[in-house]
Amino acid sequence: MNPNTPTPNDAAALAKVPEVTLGFWVIKIAATTLGETGGDAVSMSMQLGYLEATAIFALLFALCVSAQIRARRFRPFLYWATIIATTTVGTTLADFADRSLGIGYADGSALLLGLLLGTLWAWHRTLGTVSIRTVDSPRVEAFYWVTILFSQTLGTALGDWTASTAGLGYTGAALVFAALLAVVAAAYFWTGVSRTVLFWAAFILTRPLGATVGDFLDKPLNAGGLALSRYSASAVLLVFIAACILLLPQRAARSAH
């Protein structure tokens, strides 16, 4: 037997999500940026509309989550494909709610924040923890992916609210969320704040950061963007993410069970 091959006991001791490293956050931010450019490419550039684009990405999300739950161990490309699916459906779903339904960025953000907090509360009440190190069974994975979907959708609405309604623009909003992430990082290194709380805070904040960066790349010049091709930007981001998955360590987190 190859000594590097995980035994059944080793596999059972691993979660089906990656260890949280610097590489994890690099890929996460790139994936959230891709979610914005990719979502806009389908809903706007292809002129399918927010509802139709949401239906397409929701199907992709359902297929990825189903494959992820059926997988018996952590598979990096499948995991990150599922993350990208949540970011794209989160983009078009938030845009549909905020713009097509007229809920607005502020009300949409408040509603999604409530749904996110409610999901985390239900997860904690059911299983006693929301640590990603417990994501090693279909039941926990269901909570995990619903939580991520709400966090990605919230990030889109929150990013749009900060950039547009608050008047900070895309670069100003990106700097705000980058600064908030720096505060979370400082708390991680220099305080005793719960690592689980800090993880979810950082996970949530990376989404509006990616959303505002994505908008900055593809929105028109007169709207404060660079007017880059959504297709080209999405393709470059996809290649970058694939390269990171191949080159940066992608190991499964140790399970808490």
**Side-by-side strand order of the widest sheet:** 1-2
Q: How many separate helices? A: 9
Low-confidence stretches: 1-12
Which structural category fits the helices and strands? mainly alpha
Shape: globular
What's the rounded overall pLDDT mean? 88
Oligomeric state of the chains present here: single chain
Give the beta-strand count: 2
Radius of gyration: 18 Å
Q: Which H/E pattern describes the elements?
A: HEHHHHHHHHE
Q: How many domain regions?
A: 1
Per DSSP, what share of the residues sits in E-state strands of 2 or more residues?
A: under 5%
- Head-to-tail CA distance between termini: 26 Å
Overall helicity = over 70%
For the sheet with most strands, the description reads:
2 strands, antiparallel
What does this structure look like?
By secondary structure, this protein is mainly alpha-helical. The protein has one domain (9-254). It has nine helices and two strands. The chain has helices at residues 8-12, 22-45, 50-70, 76-100, 105-127, 138-165, 169-190, 195-218, 230-247; strands at 14-18, 252-254. Strands 1-2 form a two-stranded antiparallel sheet. α3 runs antiparallel to α4 (76-100). The longest helix has 28 residues, at 138-165. It is globular and about 50 Å long. The relative contact order is 0.18. Residues 1-12 have low confidence and may be disordered.
